[in-house]
Amino acid sequence: MMPWRIFFWGIFSLLGVWLQSLIPGVDFLAPGFILCVQEERWPVTVWLAVLWLFIQEGTGSLAFGSGILWYGALAGLYYFGHWLFEARNFLFMFILGICLGLLHFLLTYVMAYLNDWTIITERVALECLLQALIFPVEWGLMFLLYNHLPEDANAL
Amino acid sequence: MGAREENERLKAELGVAKRELAMSREKVSEAERLAALLHMRAPAGWDLSGARIISHRLGPNASLETILIDKGSLEGLGVNTPVASPEGVVGRVLRISPNAANVLLITDPNSRIPVTSQKNRIQGILRGEGPNKELTLEYVPLGAPIEENEILVTSGLAEIFPKGIPAARVIRVAKGGSSLFQTVYAAPLFAPERLEEVALLRRASDSHLAMEEMADEEAGPREGPLPLDVGDSASPERSAAAISAAPPTAQGAVEKAKPRPNGGSGTAPKPGHAASRKKRQEGT
Fold this sequence. Notes:
The structure holds 2 protein chains of 2 kinds.
Chain A: H1 3-22, H2 30-39, H3 42-59, H4 66-81, H5 90-115, H6 121-146
Chain B: H1 3-38, E1 46-55, E2 66-69, E3 82-84, E4 89-96, E5 101-105, E6 112-117, E7 123-127, E8 135-141, E9 151-154, E10 166-174, E11 181-188, E12 197-203, H2 206-219, H3 236-244, H4 248-257, H5 271-283
Antiparallel strand pairs in B: 1-2, 1-12, 2-5, 3-4, 3-12, 4-5, 6-7, 6-9, 7-8, 8-11, 9-10, 10-11
Helix pairs in contact in B: 1-4, 2-5
């Protein structure tokens, strides 16, 4: 892995965690996961996914397993969707963002039901909306930045 | 040296002084917070230790009103360990890992604490309603006298929180409707977004208690406020943990803040206490 890419993913992870503390309930690392699946070799993706999974599981208040379900479902949606759409298409990412928003609602409610917890519906709904809007925009920015890294053969 | 060089040098010195002033203010603020934490007094049979807040709600799985603290099972914490601030009850430990713990705040809708009103001794269940919302006190009978601004303290009935810790302040009492109970609204005593350090309350073991009583009998009546006497507090672990929660600079500030009733060292333990502690250590 090139040093610039290590730097890129390091900075991305730090920024992602910082943004997550600013806007709780929204996953800012998920667009990086999809970009990683698209652009990096699978060992890099697996290592980064495990790191991000630990961050999300450790900082979250839901029972252990929600992060695995979250990233597992995201990977599943991507692999299912890329048979139907162009994988690096913004429209596909937009649809994936909407699916993630709905998934956040579903997952939160299922986990809350299993734990017999009460969830603030208005807040979860707002988080879903933000997740759906932020995901494609962040992916687009990350995609542009990644493809302008110095060592990249496609860099302009 | 020309006027220009001197001007540049003075500007550089001013920049350094401003940075130092900002850092000093931050340290003073931290020392004040830590001193307030050290002034907290653990109820009889409970030990007190400090913890820092690592983060507030963070990430897609942060569905509950929680905070993450830097102490975990390795420091002896367990699920339901009570968490408090100098103002009052903050919440209880919800999830635990070796070096960190998630604390469920009393403002979360899943939090329910049995409380008693401090003045009129009316019991009820204090329930969270979500962030930036009032807490509600449930199951208060219609005829029960309860006043605005009355402090609600933990009743100790659930055996999670010790009895008598302030939890909330009554802000509104609504009577009427077909319900058999009054609707009482209360406000938490702490501001969740401003919390930086918290205190953890843990039960002291029975044998530990007995030894403390023996030590107290040997030493006679205490002079001065108990919580300030850090080196001589109810538990050595408590003191160590409370001190370890403070950085060296803050510890110094806290030490300076301690009153010295005899004009001597405020932290020096009494001879009787020191002897009894030595005996305890040898015994264990």
